[in-house]
Structures are given as C-alpha cells and as structure tokens.
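Subject: for your reference before the review

Hello V.,

The reviewers asked for a structural picture of the protein, and I figured it would be easier to keep everything in one thread rather than splitting it across files. Below is the amino acid sequence we used in the manuscript, unchanged from the supplementary table.
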Amino acid sequence: MSEAWALRPHAPALGTVLCALEEVPRDNGREVCFGEGEKAFRVVLFRLDTSDEASPELRAYINECPHFFIQYNFNADTFCVYDIEGQKDLMCAHHTAMFHLSDGRCYEGPCLGKRLIEVPVKLLNQQVVIG
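And here is what came back from the structure prediction:
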C-alpha cells in the first residue's frame, strides 16, 4: 500500500480516530476532514461487507478523483455508491468514473486503470482509526 496519503497537507497521524464505526453508513460514505479550504485532508470511509458487525470490512480513500483531482461527491456525505455484480463501487459524481471500492481501481471512465489513494484504517474499540 502506498503511503502517498501521509505526504498530504493536514494528514492525520497514525492512530488518529476518524469516527465511531456506527457513523459509517452501510450504503454510502462518511467523510472526515482535517484542516480547512482547498488544502484540507479529506478522507472517505466505506463499509464493504455489512454482514459482520463484529469486524466489518472497511476502506478509506482520499476524497479526490484521479481524473481531475476534485472530490467524488457534490454534497457532503452523499456519495454515489452502487452494488454491482456482488461488490460495492463508487462513481465520481462529476465525470462518472467508476471505481471498485475493494481496491480503488477505476474500471470505467476517463481515468481508466488509475487508483484512488487509499488511507489505511483499522477498527479499535468500535472506533475507526488511521493505521
């Protein structure tokens, strides 16, 4: 996994609590911001497998489409997440690029083959933390 996320302005340190697990929706994303303005560090959390409440599968990515380097969403905490062929996918609301949330790879659209920048997360006492 690349550590490109850690080089961004306002990137939180390993171990930083992002939110409680219960704040990550089962059918959408949850954005957490550090800093303000255009240089804010924006990370989006997604649940991939909602069947196991004890240890759900989580993914986190910097909220920045690799096509045009803008946020994937138009409105706060409203992401275009779809269940397609048994997996969750994200569509960039601006240019309709499609990404597999399991690995961040773009499989359709203007940034075909590029990847979202993953931020490592883990669950600790029902809190989602950088790690």
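For the response letter, the relevant points are probably these. The CA atoms of residues 91 and 98 lie 5 Å apart. DSSP finds no helices and ten strands in the chain.

Happy to draft the paragraph if you're swamped.

O.
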